[in-house]
Design a protein that fits this description.
The protein is α+β, with helices and mostly antiparallel strands. The protein contains ten helices and eight strands. The strands form two sheets. Strands 4-3-8-7-6-5 form a six-stranded mixed β-sheet. Strands 1-2 form a two-stranded antiparallel sheet. Helix 3 packs antiparallel against helix 4 and helix 5 packs parallel to helix 7. The protein is rod-shaped and about 175 Å long. 28% of the residues are buried.
């Protein structure tokens, strides 16, 4: 059905008037004819010619042409019907047959999460605390401990300013442990606690100073109200309750001079204890009456009121000085009428907490 019908002249066994039969034996004129796809006869001999064929043979039979067209139509229709009836699964003959009732689910490929390497956790360090410091002790310590505390405090200050907080904490604590009366080292430890976010611990150290009650201690509480390292705590109710009511009534330079002259003249140095910083440097000079140069002057440096008191008791009996005159930070005294160790001058200075304390004393020995 899908082939092309040949015209009568090309079909075997059909007779065409005046023409040789297709498929017959070779004629005397030459070899057997060869058929083309149009149903005409081709001859391989050079002498053959279509002019020798009748005209009807060239055109073919009209009936056969009509049958050929009808056959083509029937063939095309049959092809359409076959395609419509064909099983769709046969459209891919090489594909594997699948059961339509079978469900095929896509199984996702498990994704293995890539976890970045975790850095090892550094060992936790203890949080600095107020109770790491010993209680405030204003009594004198040995010179070795006092010197050690001073060196450690200077080193801690450098670490503090360089923001090496961990080392600064440890160094401040060692300084205070060497000398529990080092008020400035204790206060700076409290400042560093607040800067590091340990506000409650810092306030606990300030409370140690308030409980001690010395002028230098209270002066540090007053200083905290304007110290930039405590600015974050200025509106803290606990900070206000601790520092807001602190008042320090300091004597004037003239009043301090009068108090010092009375204590030195009578030997009752305890009367002047509040005029001295617990760990402030005190320069003491002593010379005989009439000394005009340094060769006859004795100079010593003491580091606490207790050390000064101990030195004073080893000297000649005291006697009251004469008239007092004060200017700026110092007071001078005229010689008194009696022999003995007399106070000749006193100078004061303000520390960073605005607390005035005695910084130097001069004595003269009158015989």
């Amino acid at each position: 059905l899908a082939g092309t019908l040949l015209p009568d002249a090309a079909m075997p066994g059909s007779a065409v008037p005046g023409a040789a039969l297709e498929g017959s034996a070779a004629t005397a004129d030459g070899p057997s004819p060869v058929h083309n796809t149009r149903g005409t006869t081709l001859r391989n001999t050079a002498n053959s010619s279509d002019a020798a064929l009748p005209e009807q043979a060239k055109r073919g039979s009209p009936t056969l042409r009509r049958l050929g067209i009808a056959g083509l139509a029937v063939s095309a229709l049959a092809g359409v019907v076959l395609l419509a009836l064909r099983d769709p699964s046969e459209s891919t003959p090489h594909a594997a047959t699948k059961d339509p009732s079978e469900k095929h689910e896509l199984v996702p490929t498990p994704v293995v999460p890539t976890t970045p390497p975790v850095a090892p956790t550094p060992p936790s360090r203890p949080t600095p605390r107020a109770d790491a410091l010993p209680p405030v002790l204003l009594a004198a310590v040995s010179n070795d401990n006092a010197d050690k505390a001073r060196r450690l405090h200077k080193r801690a200050l450098k670490l503090h300013r360089a923001q090496a907080f961990e080392e600064a904490f440890a160094t401040y604590a060692r300084a205070v442990q060497a000398d529990p009366g080092h008020i400035v080292a204790r206060y700076n430890y409290a400042c560093l606690l607040n800067v590091a976010g340990e506000v409650d611990e810092g306030l606990a150290v300030l409370k140690q100073l308030k409980d001690a009650g010395c002028p230098t201690c209270l002066g540090r509480l007053i200083r905290a109200r304007s110290d930039s390292e405590w600015q974050s705590a200025w509106n803290n109710p606990a900070f206000i309750a601790l520092t807001g009511d602190v008042r320090l009534l300091q004597p004037s330079v003239h009043e301090s001079g009068a108090l010092m002259a009375n204590a030195a003249g009578t030997g009752e140095l305890a009367l002047s204890a509040d005029l001295f910083a617990p760990r402030g440097d005190l320069a003491v000079n002593m010379s005989p009456a009439g000394c005009q140069d340094r060769s006859c002057r004795e100079s010593i440096k003491l580091r606490s009121f207790d050390a000064f008191q101990a030195w004073f008791l080893t000297q000649a009996a005291p006697s009251a000085p004469g008239k007092q005159s004060c200017a700026k930070d110092c007071c001078r005294y005229a010689p008194g009428p009696q022999a003995g160790l007399q106070l000749s001058s006193m100078c004061t200075s303000l520390d960073s907490g605005a607390v005035r304390s005695v910084s130097s004393l001069e004595f003269v020995v009158i015989e």
